User: Fold this.
Amino acid sequence: MTRALVQAVRTLLAGAVALCLALPAAHAQPAQPAQPPQPAHSTQAAEAAVRTPQRIVSLVPSLTETVCSLGACSRLVGTDRFANWPPSVLQLPKLGGLDDAQVESIVALRPDLVLAAPSARVVRRLRDLGLTVQVFASDSHADVRRSIDALAATLGDAAAGPRLWAAIERELAAARDRVPPAWRGQRVYFEVSTTPHAAGTGSFIGQTLAGLGLANIVPPALGAFPQLSPEFIVRAQPDVVMAPRREISAMAARPGWAALQALGHDRHCGFDAAGYEMLVRPGPRLGEAAGLIADCLVALESRR
Amino acid sequence: MALDLTVPATGATDHSRRRTLALGLAAAAALLLTAGLWVGSEGWAWPAEQAALIVGQIRAPRSLGALAVGALLGLAGALAQGLFRNPLADPFLIGTAAGASLAVVVVLAAGVLGASAATQWFGDIGLAAAAFSGALGGMLLTLLMARGAQHSLRLLLAGVVVGMVCGAVADLLVTLSPQAMRGRQFFMLGSTALLGWHQLALLGAGLALALPAAWRLSRGLDALALGEDTATSLGLPLARLRGALVLLLALATGLAVSQAGLVAFVGLVSPHLVRRFAPAPHGYTLLASAATGGVLLLGADVLARGLLAPLELPVGVLTALLGGGYLLWLLHRRAG
Assistant:
């Protein structure tokens, strides 16, 4: 009995060590996702057609918007469940979210390009199955610009990227000019969730606010979307509060929040669902979102 | 001196029940495997195009993977119930689930927080390896706190404490890095969607290791069932036996959880079903629990894919509903 026990323990330990070593190998990435085979003598046009993806699946709503803004909406064959702009993508098959993507449905659509976000587990699985997957981060204006340029190049029209970004920058500049002078430099509290989470200076929302000439009550050291103590917000006394419309009406009822002078003096921007969604999506509608904020400030100014 | 500690068979009925159960499980497995190849994104239909890719590379490894993960969990459940001599013992009570979950959050948070050399390595190694090491680590921490596996009660208490502490640290990390929360939620629900042939090979290797080891330890479990004092007086090295059982438990649970996340109740319910239908010594019970667990999870996976196709339900939700319902009924029967 004892000898069997000792043997069993030895075998188990050896097996455990072997498995620990084998696990990284089991997740070894293939060196490059398989590229479509290039025939030896092909014309340039044929090569271009082979290289640009014609069936695109996008698992990130902001990347769906980017693809459509670059004029390749017709090449989309499937999106995730949250994509809703432009309205035409609502007709496309929905493939779950980033975390519960329906692998078989995606494969059944025969995409030649899948767009995803970094650290989604499904990326490895799809690459193992031989699909081409590109991941883009979307944490800042610079990330959005990079993803637009990279996608434009992938879609075969590299010039469209800078063109789109130039249009976004024009919208941002126009929004900045619309902000009434009295509101420049005002300190904003932009609420991202009721926990409360705020949009910090380093987030893409914070960058939009900075681009409009507004300040943020959240110092850069706290990060992109910090969870704040309500005391901090009340003590900071923001000049403007920005949140979804239904939250603004409920905000004064939160314990201690009635002390926010901005709420008492009607200095708040409550965005409707569609507008708020545009604000929190780091995609090609950044300029339009900035315009929403500018419009709200203009309305506040006219009410004074 | 080795004693024969097998429960004496009391007649043909016991043997025939065991045989029936074994055959029944084999038949169920074959049936469900076939169903697993037929159900998918188009409901109960063979794919019109890309059949080789869809059936061969997605449905087949996923169904076999569900079978393997369920087998590991069923085995772990039977081991836990034998080790703690408590029919409500669960492989997730001894720090494995908490450790695995914490390791997953660490990897996710590290991947998001920065791209230093260390975090790149972390990201490469992948969530699976992290979960496995986390499960082992959680178990070892529990053993450390309980100062060995001598006392079942102390082990259970240490497991609960380790679970709470690991959970709290994981929550703290998620607060600092909210993007880790999404991946963790997915991990907590359990899913067979990401099982391919690579993962199946790993699971198969784990089973090939665990099942024979379990068979050899089964007599020790039979002795333990007589009571700690009796077992000690029979000359069994109790501490070493417990240690080996705990290690096997961690291996089986860690491997299963690292591939499919936290799948509830399979480990709890499988030994119950086996004991209800065909009471037997641990040698049979352990293997039959593994088979039952495999069949249960495969059945849940087929249902998850087929019920609302092309929508996939998380398999952990189904096992929790079915297993939890069974457990409630069991408790009701005991009380009544």
